[in-house]
Specification:
The structure holds two protein chains of two kinds. Chain A is an all-alpha fold. Chain A has a domain of about 325 residues. Helices cover about 75% and strands about 0% of the residues of chain A. Chain A is built from 23 helices and no strands. Chain B is mainly α. Chain B has two domains: about 70 residues; about 80 residues. Helix content of chain B is about 65%, strand content about 5%. In chain B, strands 1-2 form a two-stranded antiparallel sheet. In chain B, helix 1 packs antiparallel against helix 2, helix 3 runs antiparallel to helix 4 and helix 4 crosses helix 5. The longest helix of chain B is centred in the N-terminal third of the chain and has 24 residues. The radius of gyration of chain B is 24 Å and the shape is flat. The chains are: A mainly alpha, B mainly alpha. Chains A and B meet through helix 9, helix 10, helix 20, helix 21 and helix 22 of A and strand 1, helix 1, helix 2, helix 3 and helix 4 of B.
Amino acid sequence: MSDLSTAFLLVADPYVLFVIAASAAFGLFVGSIPGLTATMATALLVPVTFFMDPVPAIAAIVTATAMAIFSGDIPGCLLRIPGTPASAAYCDEAYAMTRKGQAEKALGTSLIFSVIGGLFGTTVLVLAAPTLANFALSFSSFEYFWLVCLGLSCAVFISPASPMKGLVSLFIGLLIATVGIDNPAGQPRFTFGDYELLTGVPFIPAMIGLFAISEVMRAAVARSTPPKPQAGAISGIFSGQVANVKRYWKQGLRGSVLGTAIGALPGAGADIAAWISYAISKRFSKTPEKFGTGHEEGLAEAGSANNGALSGAWIPALVFGIPGDSITAVVIGVLYVKGMNPGPTIFIHNPELIHAVFIVFFLANLILLPFGWLAIKLSKQALRVPPRVLMPVILMFCVVGAFAITNSMYGVVIALCLGVLGFFMEENGFPVAPAILGLVLGPMLEQNFITSLIKADGSMLAFFERPIAGGLGVVTIALWVVPILFLIIARRKRMAPAA
Amino acid sequence: MRVGDAAIGVLVVLLGLAVAITAWPMPNLPNQSYGAATFPVAIGTCLIGLGAVMVITGVARGGGFTVALEGWGRAPSSWLRLLALVILIVAFVLTAHAVGFMVAGTLLMFGMLLTFRCGVLPALLIAPVATYAVAWAFGNILRVPLPRGILSSLW
């Protein structure tokens, strides 16, 4: 039996289909609650996926995130509060449509173009990942070292916060990753005599803390209560959408391409893709004056971009083991737990599982249509769930989820400590995503760095001797040097007239 | 609550110093000049550099050592809720093994509901039901070895 048919059989299992349906409902609910992100949905799902086989576990995450990214548009449209950061770019536009009595048109456009973006991104993932994996088979520790450096650099520079704060966050993540005995010398580091710290900081409780517990803390200190939905009954979601697709096919395609490309960049996710796509849509629009007044053009482009980015982020995650965004950072942890070590060899050792992941991606994006329709219909009920009940329940899930990973209170303590850290970091403008990438990629960076140093006998020139490694090294260094050069030139230009 | 960049920079420098000093004596790999210390020392050094830049830029911009209470930070009740949340989780960690998940979890849930301004009566109803549902799902279906303690026969 071929790998593809085995993969189809794996996905067609009634249990897997049930998991997909349940995680779709979960993702739609989490995404539609303001403040709960797609990453948080993933972090909350992980303890449950821990007890599943690889295919249902991955299917649950893929489906929940695709749904959450779309359903984040619903409160944005009805309340002017984006459900997830990925919907923030066009939240005002969608709300302006609601005020004009076009809520169903806005949500319909958002849904249709989310599906288009998701399917496009998945197609690119299916075509690009195996080709890139073949290419990556010849990579040595030098190439991997530079790839990780490039990924981490992108995470710092693409982050909307100041690069300095992004860097501090990244190094905090790298530092946390050094805890434990799992290092080239097998020496206990920063364990303070605690035997549980010998195993290092468990990744999943850390994620639960940084993303979920910190969010619950934010909700605890918030002083405002969420507003009530504005729109009346929502009906006719799909009416006029065929004409809309015909009218905005170019925008949808451009958003899908850009979203997938941005998603594939390590460190950049759906939120950045949506912001850039919305800006590009306005820049190239024939009617830019309509933007901001309730015009669906930007919605079509940015809506397809954020769902395209979700699939794009899986390309570096599967091929190189380097997460494209914070969601795939969690996924990489899950893949390791499931014995599917991400990297080019996964395509050789587990081809049927990879094909199953691709099928799940297509399925998740296709069922977004009926499930998304249902979510829009039920949106008012979901938005009525009071945060004063929802947040304690989420916290309970965080606590039990963190416990489930280590089967001890150690996981809960880690989640709490990193929750407090994440809360105060975000309060002071330090982005959390670079810390997550540092935590995930720290061991890979150290291993490749030390291995390369030993191979090169300490010579840094050897890091540039192989053509691909050299190219990646130059790009990484340019990413650091060029902005500084531009800054110096700009400062000189400013000072020249003054002199 | 926003802490000035220079003050955070000082903390980052101190963290970097502590990391580098602690890691420095760690042994190398046999017959190599690299080992367990290489990576943490590099991280510590970078943190020191970054912290120093934050101190300099923070001082240059002014107000680098200030602590500004903005938004929620001005309301003592917000601080109390934040503190309550941490205390509740710590209390759960400390007591769960002795009294079991059902009791410690219900108390955690009850405290959390009150922290989020839920009424006492609804909290009294929701806390045991939600805790039981979580205990049943994780303990029974997913076989997570939640601390049994008293009332463990319930799930």
